[in-house]
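Quick one before lunch.
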Amino acid sequence: MPLLTRRNLLKASAVAGAYGAGIAIAGKFGLAEAAPEPQLLTAVKTEAVLTKAGPTRNIMSWGHEGMPPVLRMTKGRRYAARLKNELDEPTTIHWHGLRIDNRMDGVPFVTQPYIYTGDSFDYAFTPPDAGTFWYHPHCNTLTQMGHGMTGMLIVEDPADPEFDAEVLLNLRDWRLGGDGQFIAPFRPRDAAKSGTYGTLRTANWRQEPQYDAPAGGLVRLRIAITDVTRIFSLKMVGAEATAIAIDGNPVPKRFPLDLLQIGPGQRLDLAVRMPDEEGAVATLEDIRGTAPKTIASLRSMGASLKRDIGDLGPLGQNPVPALDLSAAEQIPLVLSATAENAAAQSICGTLGYSFWAINKVPWPGDTPDPTAPLAELKLGKSYVFNLENTTPHAHPIHLHGMSFTVISSSTREVMTLVSDTYLVQPDEKVQLALVADNLGDWVLHCHIIEHQKTGMTSYVRVS
Ligand code: C2O
Ligand code: CU
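Model of the CU-O-CU linkage complex:
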C-alpha cells in the first residue's frame, strides 16, 4: 500500500515537476501525478496487406497505419489514453497484465460501460510494474481481436540493464481465405476442443520477418502471444537465448530457452546473444505440431560486439506484495466442459454456445447479467487458487488487476513465477497464490477467446 512518507513525497514532486505542474497525491500503487496529454487511440475499420492476394478488408485496429501502435510507458509514471470509437460497434480497451485502478480495466458491465460508436473514453493510470504487456478490446473480442486489435505495450524501467538492440514480436494468426479476406472466425466443434486456428501466421503482421541486430550483441527480444487461439512451443536456433522475464515479470532464475510452451495472453522476454559472424541468422521457431515453423529471425550485422550474457545485470523487481501463505484461504477453481445454458445475446458478442465452465458455472463474460463472484476476497489478505483442469485441453487462465505467484503443480516442478496468465495443462492441478491488493471486481478467464466466450469466464471481488 502506498505510504505518504516524506521521502515518497519528495520523489513524487520531482516526477511531477517533469510535467511542469502537478500536485502529488497518493495513488493506488505509488503516487499519482497530474495526467499527461492523452495518447489518442482511434478504433477503426481499415485495410491492410497481409497476403499476396491484395489488401484484406475489415481489418480492425487503432489508427489506419496497420498494426496497432506499440504503447510505451514508464513504470511509476502517469499515462493517459483517449479511446475514440469509430467502429460500427461498441468497444473498450483492456490493458493486459497492468495492475491498475479497477475503473480503468476496460471490462464492459464489470468495470465500465462499453463505448458506443462515436463516443470516447479517457483512460489514465500509473503502471506499477515494468515489463512486456499488451492491450486489446474486451467487447466482441473474437471479432475485434481476430480482425487485428491486439497491440503490444511496453512499460520501461529506466534502471533496466542496457541491451544493444530491442526487437518486439507481436505473434498472431489470421483466419483468411485464399482471396485474403476474413472467413468465419470459428467452428463450434473446435471451440469445444482446443479452439479454431488461424490460416495465416504472422509476427508484427508479416510472415517470417527478419530483423538486423549487432553481431555479438545482446538483443532484448520481447514476445507477446496475442493470438486468440494458438499455443506456441518456442525454440531459438542459431543463437543462445536466455529467458529473462515471463508475463512481464523477471524470472526468479534465468534459464536458457530450450523449449518453452506459452499460450495466448502470455509474454516472454529473451536475451539473445547474436552470432559473431556478420550475416549469421538466428531463427525463432514454433515446434508445436508437426513441422517446425519459422516465426521470425535476427541477422547479425557489423563487427562483433563480443558481449557476454553474464554481463547483463538483473532486471528491476516489480513491487508485488509479499504473500502470507500460513494464513491464506484456499479457493477452488475447477475448469470443466459443460453443455448447459446456451449463451444469451449480448451487445459485446456471443458465440451462441456454452461449452465450458468454471466451478460448474458457464458465463461468457461481457454481459449485463454476471454470475455471483467466484470468491469474495478481503483487501490485503493472501489467497491460494487451487486451479484444476479436468478437461483434455490446455487453458491459459488470465486474472485481471492482480499478479499471482505459481507455487506448485501436480505434474511438474514449477518456478515461483509472478504472472497474470497460467497455461494449465490437461489434468494438471496448480496452486496460484496472491495478495488481494486491488479493490474491485476482476475477471478471470481462459485467453483462448472461444473458450472465454463460451463459458470459461468468472470473476473475483476484492472489497
Ligand atoms: Cu487479455 Cu480479460 O484479457
Ligand atoms: Cu481455454
